[in-house]
Specification:
Blueprint (H helix, E strand, L loop, with lengths): L7 H10 L1 E3 L2 E5 L5 E4 L4 E5 L1 H9 L2 H13 L5 H9 L21 H10 L1 E5 L2 E7 L7 E7 L11 E2 L5 H5 L21 E6 L1 H11 L3 H9 L8 H6 L13 H11 L8 E2 L19 E2 L4 H14 L5 E3 L4 H15 L17 H11 L9 E3 L3
Parallel strand pairs: 8-9, 10-11
Antiparallel strand pairs: 1-2, 2-3, 3-4, 5-6, 6-7, 7-9, 12-13
Helix pairs in contact: 4-8, 10-11
This protein binds iron/sulfur cluster.
Iron/sulfur cluster binds next to helix 11.
């Protein structure tokens, strides 16, 4: 039969069951003719030859159906993510979560956009979905670091195997191990120029494990959130102590570890179901459903530290030295120490300023010279 409409025979078979996909409706009637509908027009009583000619005039709808039919996986996170990548409407989103990037495009405008490439951001990843030239609707996906958005492909290190993402995400740009995969410290300078849909989802999963699956669950209103208290109470062994962390310390912990500047997951867990934490959960597209192992390990340290009694110390500092202590703590907490130039002695966290303060105010054991006072 006709090859001017690729897979025409498959389409006729599908019409028997009825096609209703992305605004493209095709049905075979009891009389053996076809009814064809798009948002712009509806035609009925079409014989096969007429149907073929009608389909030739709407190639985008036909190839769109064919591509997604081949992708398959109805209802899966993989399919939903790939559709999100090209701004296709997503099925099954709850009203609450439709706002998460649902700036969708219908088929004709989506195909125009795919010619140039539809760009999406996923944490520090930049995904571009494109139509393969002469590929009858097939898509390819480019994956690179957001910071490399404007760089020519040739300047970047090329990768084909999605498993390479594992190694790329292990160390940051300074060669330091990244214990938290979703920390905003992913190194740049690489590109996966032509991934298939399956390869793209695999690569994203290596960079940011489980983020696609959790995003998908959330969209369907099925995200299973484990709050702090239940997570802490079920710990055993050396982590058994973390449920002793005071309530307010859990706020400080979330502020220290989970805000956007430290982690790209959007924290959805709270202290308890009815007790929200003070810091904002963040704005990232993918949710965090439970305290991660990094937070649990850090919580153990804080639980031990918080078990100490507070004491009062008296120490002598000039006002500038007191301010300098605050500047030092800020610089370390914000990961800024590497950026402070040695010549910039105006910055309290400058290395020479810190060494001077240590020489002046610390004793030979390395402790701050201070007198402990009894508390009233
Ligand atoms: S618990 Fe906090 S730091 Fe860990 S993944 Fe979730 S949001 Fe990120």
């Amino acid at each position: 039969m006709a090859d001017s409409v690729p897979d025409f025979d498959a389409l006729l078979v599908a019409a028997g069951e009825g096609v209703d996909f992305d605004g493209f409706v095709l049905e075979r009637t009891d009389g053996g003719t076809y009814a064809l509908e798009t948002p712009e027009a509806r035609e009925t009583g079409l014989e096969e030859g007429e149907l073929e000619r009608a389909l030739e005039s709407i190639p985008a709808f036909v190839s769109n159906w064919r591509y997604w039919d081949a992708i398959g996986g109805e209802g899966t996170a993989r399919r939903a993510f790939l559709r999100w990548c090209e701004r296709a409407p997503l099925a099954g989103a709850t009203a609450e979560h439709r706002t998460l990037g649902d700036d969708t495009l219908e088929v004709p405008e989506r195909y125009d956009a795919l010619e140039d490439g539809v760009v999406r951001e996923w944490g520090q990843l930049r995904v571009t979905a494109e139509l393969v030239k002469g590929g009858e609707g097939e898509r390819r996906y480019e994956l690179r670091h957001l910071d490399d958005a404007d760089r020519a492909r040739e300047e970047l290190e090329h990768h084909e195997d999605p498993r390479d993402a594992r190694e790329l995400s292990t160390y940051d740009g300074k060669g330091r191990y990244r214990p938290l995969k979703t920390a905003p410290t992913l190194r740049s300078g690489w590109v996966f120029p032509e991934l298939t849909g399956r390869e793209l989802v695999d690569a994203v999963d290596f960079f940011y494990p489980a983020t696609v699956a959790n995003w998908h669950c959330e969209r369907r209103g099925e995200l299973d959130v484990d709050h702090w208290l239940e997570t802490a109470e079920r710990q055993t062994g050396i982590y058994d102590v973390i449920d002793e962390l005071p309530r307010e310390a859990v706020d400080w912990m979330a502020e220290a570890c989970c805000v956007d500047s430290q982690c790209l997951r959007r924290r959805e867990w709270e202290y308890d179901e009815d007790d929200e934490l003070e810091p904002e959960g963040g704005d990232g597209p993918f949710p965090c459903r439970e305290p991660c192992s990094l937070v649990v390990a850090a919580a153990r340290k804080w639980a031990i530290l918080e078990s100490e009694d507070e004491r009062t110390y008296e120490l002598e500092l000039t006002p500038s030295e007191r301010n300098q202590l605050a500047e030092l703590i800020d610089a370390v907490a914000d990961g800024r120490t590497d950026e402070i130039r040695e010549a910039d002695v105006n910055d309290g966290a400058n290395r020479y300023r810190a060494r001077y303060l240590r020489a002046k105010r610390f004793d030979e054991d390395g402790g701050l010279k201070a007198t402990e006072r009894e508390r009233n």
